[in-house]
From TrEMBL:
Pfam families for the chain: AAA_lid_4, RuvB_N, WHD_RuvB
Binding site for ATP: 22-23, 64, 67-69, 130-132, 173, 183, 220
InterPro entries, sorted: AAA+_ATPase, AAA_lid_4, DNA_helicase_Holl-junc_RuvB, P-loop_NTPase, RuvB-like_N, RuvB_wg_C, WH-like_DNA-bd_sf, WH_DNA-bd_sf
UniProt subcellular location: Cytoplasm
GO biological process, alphabetically ordered: DNA recombination; DNA repair
Protein's job: The RuvA-RuvB-RuvC complex processes Holliday junction (HJ) DNA during genetic recombination and DNA repair, while the RuvA-RuvB complex plays an important role in the rescue of blocked DNA replication forks via replication fork reversal (RFR). RuvA specifically binds to HJ cruciform DNA, conferring on it an open structure. The RuvB hexamer acts as an ATP-dependent pump, pulling dsDNA into and through the RuvAB complex. RuvB forms 2 homohexamers on either side of HJ DNA bound by 1 or 2 RuvA tetramers; 4 subunits per hexamer contact DNA at a time.
Family under the similarity heading: Belongs to the RuvB family.
Primary location class: cytoplasm
CDD domains: AAA
Quaternary organization: Homohexamer. Forms an RuvA(8)-RuvB(12)-Holliday junction (HJ) complex. HJ DNA is sandwiched between 2 RuvA tetramers; dsDNA enters through RuvA and exits via RuvB. An RuvB hexamer assembles on each DNA strand where it exits the tetramer. Each RuvB hexamer is contacted by two RuvA subunits (via domain III) on 2 adjacent RuvB subunits; this complex drives branch migration. In the full resolvosome a probable DNA-RuvA(4)-RuvB(12)-RuvC(2) complex forms which resolves the HJ.
Protein name as annotated: Holliday junction branch migration complex subunit RuvB
Organism: Sinomonas atrocyanea
Gene name of the encoded protein: ruvB
Renumbered residue ranges of the record's region Head domain (RuvB-H): 257-356
Length: 356
């Protein structure tokens, strides 16, 4: 497998601690996502006024846009404890029963990657969300009995990068669904200003713009790039980070001016050089770059499609003329985008289905 990229890398514990320190704690500090923020604020305010536990909340969107942060904020705003788990950690209904039966009244349960929970656990969750009750099955086969167990009212905050993969009955049980969008450069500048303040870093306005422009619309990446720029400035004895310093630092980390990192460029150049610009299926493309299909699909692809560098067609992924230009290659006359790019443009909803 290829070495993890700077943008998609798993972080060291120290990095994670730093990331946690940069998390906004209240809705007011949460930058961008105006629509979701306003709607969520209303949902929370109404439950506070009624003295009730907040409705279940589903947050969807690509990684690093603030789903975990929002779950923490929900718990903070409701003055409730927070329990964190994830779909992959819940492989048996019993795992979920253990969590649910130990919740306290009003607690916020955050389930990350909720689309990756096992089917039996998912079915148990339906009843827990709707009736605050679960059936614990004791014994096996013909002698098995279901013992009903009442649960205290709780708020489930589910997060998913793939809302389309959630079964309808699960999706319908959330009282509020918020879809997080990529951030604009201006919004990322605000995220970076706040983080620089917390890290005690001096950065010029142009320096913030340079880092924000390379952050792929994602606050987690913006903060990570800022930390790398900070390292670079420290080693080079630079006190105030301007656009040149930020650019030089990020060039060194192979994050280009458009925000593409090694993985993104690897995907694009495989598409162009190994598959003649496509169409090619997701798993084939993932094998060609030595990554998991899910990583290519959730980390690299949304940004490449959004930037108009890659298209999704019913027959697979294709490179757009912009991709050739970005890689400094001549645009071939007989490329697949000519016929299909109009079918599914960047960010098109139809392109959301699984194409493999
Ligand atoms: N709106 C925001 N304002 C300021 N900082 C933010 C915002 N959203 C996210 N961040 C920062 O980005 C980092 C990543 O956010 P978070 O962990 O909430 O993303 P996520 O969507 O849960 O990602 P994943 O799905 O990969 O777990 C956090 O450390 C936080 O500091």
């Amino acid at each position: 497998m290829a070495e993890p990229s700077l943008v998609a890398s798993q972080e060291e514990p120290e990095e994670r601690a730093l990331e946690a320190a940069l998390r906004p704690k209240f809705l007011d500090e949460f930058v961008g996502q105006g629509r979701v923020r306003r709607q969520l604020s209303l949902v929370l305010e109404a439950s506070r006024m009624r003295g009730r536990t907040a409705d279940h909340v589903l947050l969807s969107g690509p990684p690093g846009l603030g789903k975990t942060t929002l779950a923490m904020i929900i718990a903070g705003e409701m003055n409730a404890p927070l329990r964190i788990s994830s779909g992959p950690a819940i492989q048996h209904a019993g795992d979920l029963a253990a969590i649910l039966s130990s919740l306290s009244e009003g607690e916020v349960l955050f389930l990350d990657e909720i689309h990756r929970m096992s089917r039996p656990a998912e079915e148990m969750l339906y009843m827990a969300m709707e009736d605050f009750r679960v059936d614990i099955v004791v014994g096996k086969g013909a002698g098995a009995t279901a013992i009903p167990l009442d649960l205290p009212p709780f708020t489930l905050v589910g997060a998913t990068t793939r809302a389309g993969l959630l079964p309808g009955p699960l999706r319908d049980r959330f009282g509020f669904t918020g879809h997080l969008e990529f951030y604009t450069v201006e919004e990322l500048e605000l995220v970076l200003r706040r983080s620089a303040g917390l890290l005690d870093l001096k950065v010029t306005s142009a320096g913030f713009t340079e880092v924000a422009g390379r952050s792929r619309g994602t606050p987690r990446i913006a903060n990570r790039l800022l930390r790398r720029v900070r390292d670079w400035a420290l080693v080079h004895g630079i006190e105030q980070i301007d656009a040149r310093a930020a650019g030089a630092a990020l060039d060194m980390y192979e994050v280009d001016a458009r925000g593409l990192d090694r993985l993104d460029r690897g995907v694009l150049s495989a598409l162009v050089t190994k598959f003649g610009g496509g169409p090619v299926g997701l798993s084939t493309l993932a094998i060609a770059v030595g990554e998991e299909p899910e990583t290519v699909e959730t980390v690299a692809e949304p940004y490449l499609v959004r930037e108009g560098l890659m298209g999704r067609t019913p027959r697979g992924r294709i490179a757009t003329p912009l991709a050739y230009e970005h890689l400094g290659l001549p645009v071939p006359a007989s490329a697949p985008f000519a016929e299909s790019a109009t079918l599914f443009g960047p960010g098109s909803d139809e392109a959301d289905g699984s194409l493999d």
